[in-house]
Description:
The chain is mainly alpha-helical. It has a domain at 4-38 and 95-183. Helix content is 61%, strand content 4%. It is built from seven helices and two strands; from the N terminus they run H-H-E-H-E-H-H-H-H. The model has no long low-confidence stretch (mean pLDDT 96).
Amino acid sequence: xxxIGALWLPILLSAVLVFVVSTIIHMVLKxxxxxxxxxxxEDAVRAAIRSASPEPRQYxxxxxxxxxxxKTPEVMQKFIEGPVAVVTIRKAGAPSMGPNLVQWFxxxxxxxxxxxxxxxxTLAPGTDYLHVFRLVGAVAFLGYxxxxxxxxxxxxxxxxxxxxxxxxxxxYGMVTAGAFGWLWPHAA
Length: 188
């Protein structure tokens, strides 16, 4: 059995590599550039939301507190008329990428840690590169890509965006798998 302590280097290296690859995806390749577009009459929409003074949270429009309300004609009409939306309100202020980047790196460490945990319990020291790559890659792919699907199922997030995020997850999973396969402990 391999200990988690013996895997600290692939955990750290894979998180660093995922961070670098994600930077290249978002800053160089830019295929996520059109994932968000400008809403028509943005200033009027912003003014309407600002006048309501909502706290930073996630909102559903139209809101239903109980699914029994879906059976009422008034609520059903709101859904028919639209818009139907999930809106995330963030704290007002100038955007700062620093905290988001730190959180992304910590998330990458989290995925790598659990991939290491599963691999350490199922693979022996000296396991060949391809076996390590397959197992760690599958676990990391599920970690990075699996959570992107429910928002398309339940919240109407476009499947085209989810597909790109799953592609990212596949790349991140492969990078993680490569680091683990390369640095997997040798048999004693």
